[in-house]
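Hi R.,

Here's the chain you asked about this morning:
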Amino acid sequence: MALGIHLRQNTVSALSDFTSPALIIPHLQGLDRMAVIGELAQAMKTDRRMPASSHFYQAVLNRELLASTEMGKGVAFPHARLPELKDLFFALGRCAQPLRWGDTSPPRVRFVFLVAAPESDSGEYLRLISGLVRLAKEGRLINQMEAAGDASRIFEVLQQVKLAARWGKTEPGSESDGRSETHAEIRQGG
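And the predicted structure, written out as tokens:
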């Protein structure tokens, strides 16, 4: 009897897979971090992935009080984990003028990625955060986001940021989904 376990490594995914143009606000109205987080959280409420009963906004503010989520390079990643959330996703806002993010920091935040994460999902969350950090370090892409005229153009920039590979299980003998895959197989003879 043979026991087969196949592991699939999907290499096709990008930051854009965790958002949509409807969740991108190219002209935020808020003038401080609480207002900007509120504006983005309001946009996320209209997305089917955000449960109606969610206390997401308050959870993000509570998290922000623990430590500032400003990551330098004009980018902040406020976030919260929610037990009732099923899918990881984010909203993105662009500020016309740099915002002061922490209590003592100088104004420098132009892009705010508001991330909603399921409480039990660490792998996908780490992939997303890794991609956001890479984006923040890539001056060329940040410049493209600054120059983008609308949400769809910003979304196109996010499509350029590929994420680290994701591992998942497949059934032995299942067909490929057409994406690049790596298989590992364990067989037990009998």
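Residues 11 and 74 are 28 Å apart (CA to CA).

Let me know if you need anything else.
M.
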